[in-house]
């Protein structure tokens, strides 16, 4: 009798109630698989989320960009979109919605913006879909929604920070105007470089910080959306297509949600704590750059340096946690190892982790305190050996690293890296040949407004002996 009822329920859910389209809609909206819709929503709600929410009308305020985004994206015409509504939670309800409970205690989804974090998607499901998609399942969907939306908001904020920093660089490259003021109609005097904010070298350092943050956030997004959600959803569809029983269907959906919670790190308190610190660093950096409004003179360089150092410490802590054998074995996922490899682009993270906390600090720039990714001067001895393959970002004698993940390198750095690569290859092919130490010098023009006192840039490389 029980088996007969279970088969009838399966037939009712899958055949008549439209379970598969409902699960696809949950993936599209709760798990942000419909990326164009959510990208449009963040663009439309940017002005709204830049200010504190108006508690009396916040749900109605959110409904406007939500409906506009549907009209501007692939969600237009989706018959299940009306089942979803953004809702702003308050008080104890907001606290409990993002609580993750497990056998050893509880913790929260990593927060980003206290003002706008309590957003959930309210889902209205027709009977009998509620038999499978109950309150507990929807609460877990919303915990995942909170994490994914915060990652997407960070990515959008870092894109805006890139535009602001590029505007500052262009402003600093403009030649200074005459001391007497404007010289013609419609022209305005450009103040001297010293009055226009930090030197271009320090702005490049800020861009490197932004690139490092974007490197981590983008890889986390890619891992969650593709390697976790899409893979688990494909496995769920395969299970649903083969089972003929409501109990099997329930187990398959429970396994799907449990896999998402584990592989998205929400079930691991230590990883959630590190992610929360990183989210705070990214939010502080975006707010710092955004408040400057493209004006380099309004940029707090010292605060940016502190954020940079903190983010490097927290990103290395995240890498160490993810790459630990215990985590890799407990997750049982090849995609986590792939994420670790992507985060450790060019062995950069591993090298920083091996060098210890002393390597994560405020370096020096010519002309004053800067924000180099390491201390001044080249790394030598065991630390240099730990840097690993080419492109790790070895510092030059100005304390700048030019090849951190996502940062690229300038012409001198690329030339030095090519010579280093050729040297290592030569040494491997000719182990008995001696290696001769060379010092390469390359002239570089001074940037307008730069306070760097030297016009020569030198770097140490090793070349095979003749």
UniProtKB/TrEMBL annotation:
User: Bias regions of kind Low complexity — which residues?
Assistant: 185-199
Stretches with biased composition (Acidic residues): 448-460
Domain spans labelled Gamma tubulin complex component C-terminal: 19-348
Instruction: Give the GO cellular component terms, alphabetically.
Output: gamma-tubulin complex; microtubule; spindle pole
Question: Which biological process, per GO, is one annotated for this protein?
Answer: meiotic cell cycle
Q: Which GO terms describe its molecular function?
A: gamma-tubulin binding; microtubule minus-end binding
Q: Does the keyword Cytoplasm apply?
A: yes
Keywords annotated in UniProt = Cytoplasm, Cytoskeleton, Microtubule
Q: What are the subcellular locations of this protein?
A: Cytoplasm, Cytoskeleton, Microtubule organizing center
| Chief location of this protein within or outside the cell | cytoplasm
- Please give the residue ranges the record annotates as the region Disordered: 172-199, 437-466
Read off the InterPro entries from this record. Answer: GCP, GCP_C, GCP_C_sf
Query: What's the stated role of this polypeptide?
Result: Component of the gamma-tubulin ring complex (gTuRC) which mediates microtubule nucleation.
Q: Give the protein family.
A: Belongs to the TUBGCP family.
Protein name stated in the entry: Gamma-tubulin complex component
